[in-house]
Amino acid sequence: MSSxxxxxxxxxxxxxxxNDDIVVCPDCGTPYHRECYQKEGRCINTKLHDERKxxxxxxxxxxxxxxxxxAHCGTINKPHAIICxxxxxxxxxxxxxxxxxxxxxxxxSAQGQNANxxxxxxxxxxNPNDKYCGMNPDEEFDDIKLSEAAEFIGTNKFYYLTxxxxxxxxxxxISLNAICLLFPQFYFANRKMWAETIITVVITVLLSIPTLIxxxxxxxxxxxxxxSININTDSLEVMISISNYITMAFxxxxxxxxxxxxxxxxxxxxxxxxxxxxxxxxxxxxTSGGTSFLNMVIAFGIQFLLTAGAFVxxxxxx
Length: 318
Hints:
By secondary structure, this protein is mainly alpha-helical. The protein folds into three domains: 2-77, Herpes Virus-1, CATH 3.30.40; 92-130, no CATH class; 178-315, no CATH class. It is built from ten helices and eight strands. It has helices at residues 34-40, 46-51, 57-63, 146-153, 157-170, 184-190, 194-222, 233-276, 281-288, 293-315, and strands spanning 22-24, 31-33, 68-69, 76-77, 95-99, 106-110, 140-141, 144-145. The strands form four sheets. A two-stranded antiparallel sheet has the order 1-2. Strands 3-4 form a two-stranded antiparallel sheet. A hairpin with a 6-residue loop joins strand 3 (68-69) and strand 4. Helix 4 (146-153) packs across helix 9 (281-288), helix 6 runs antiparallel to helix 7 (194-222) and helix 7 runs parallel beside helix 10.
């Protein structure tokens, strides 16, 4: 087993010596001291199992600083994990968790808060009064601090701070935003992203025009009305099918990139406020961000007016 000499056992974090009794996981090849493996009763290198990779000394060395080892159960977690995927213990410095003696589950609070309080947003025991969700407020996201990002986000900080942290560290832009599969314009309006709102509304109205023409065509043929539209039905059906496919593709694309658009919007807005305002910048950041139900109403009104305008245009189209 001398090939493992100098590598570390991921349970005790001690280097293997030539005389150590070493065993390896039969699936991923991760080496352990025999007593460490027997203590755990299983391979705790879940990252390799999830990715279906095999252990190597180079990979261990390259990932040594990015992996997160649970101090309670020893499970090796993914680099961006906040709670242990095995036992639920906190992996974030500044969050204390208490284990229930009967259930083995964890509940907890941020330092300085009542340790007997139990909170459970997103499956983790975070104190909702901690505006930074146990993260470092001085951590930077593209030249803006996490504390500034938290003020700008407003509602749902835990989800977005965690997501933006992962985006910053991995460079990945894709994530799921389910609401954008149905109503992307209202999501953007709610988050005060007016450029994205207007673009999405205009595209949505334009793609709905073939269907609007179809309804007017059917209406004109069903009733004796002067605004009957004459059009080739085969061509109209093709147009409707094409517009439906484009609409679907557009919404899927927005669903995958909407959170990234929001991240970039946040960075631009906060940077602009910091560059132009020296006093009360945090208050201005908070006011500029957050959510707005009124904006969604306005976006609905804009879409309604554009659709109504298209309707009237085709009614009087000769």
